[in-house]
Amino acid sequence: MKKRVCFLFILSTTALSSCQLISPMITDYNGVRRDVATYINSNLLFSLKDREILVNYAKGQQKILIADRLSPTAQQNLALERAEGRYCASQHISLKKLNLVDHQIFALPEHQANWQHIQNLQTQINLTPENLNCEGKF
Q: Are 118 and 69 in contact (CB under 8 A)?
């Protein structure tokens, strides 16, 4: 019995490790900060499809990190892009997983200020599902 349990444990550990090794080869992490890419790749809650969606989502969300250097019009456009990206991603993956990645991207206090500013701009945007075009985004 102990041998069987030990074998199953080793087999499951190997399978999980294999996913972490294969994922970077399948998912293109180019354009995603290394710490965010490592977080997405090492989180066992994320399937390969989840990782692909989260990487695409993270690429768009990382633009917020430079929001303080943009003009007010560009910031408004960025807020619209964030709202649209979040909505489209949420059609394929849970908001909980999107929030986990958001917390990783905006972990530093200086990043949180930009994030809060863009979120405040987002509240002024009136989006409806009819206005949004999610084709080919995720």
A: no
Number of residues that this document lists for the chain? 138
pTM for this predicted structure: 0.77
| Identity of the amino acid at 115 | W
Lowest mean pLDDT among 4-8, 31-35, 97-101, 116-120: 4-8
Sketch the domain layout of the chain as residue ranges: 2-123
Cβ contacts of 117-124, under 8 Å, gap ≥ 24:
117/67, 117/68, 117/75, 118/64, 118/67, 118/75, 118/78, 118/79, 118/82, 119/79, 121/75, 121/76, 121/78, 121/79, 122/79, 122/80, 122/82, 122/83, 124/79
User: Torsion angle of alpha carbons 57, 115, 109, 102, nearest 10°?
Assistant: -30
Residue 105's contacts (CB-CB under 8 Å, 6 or more residues apart) are 33, 36, 58, 61, 62, 64, 65, 111
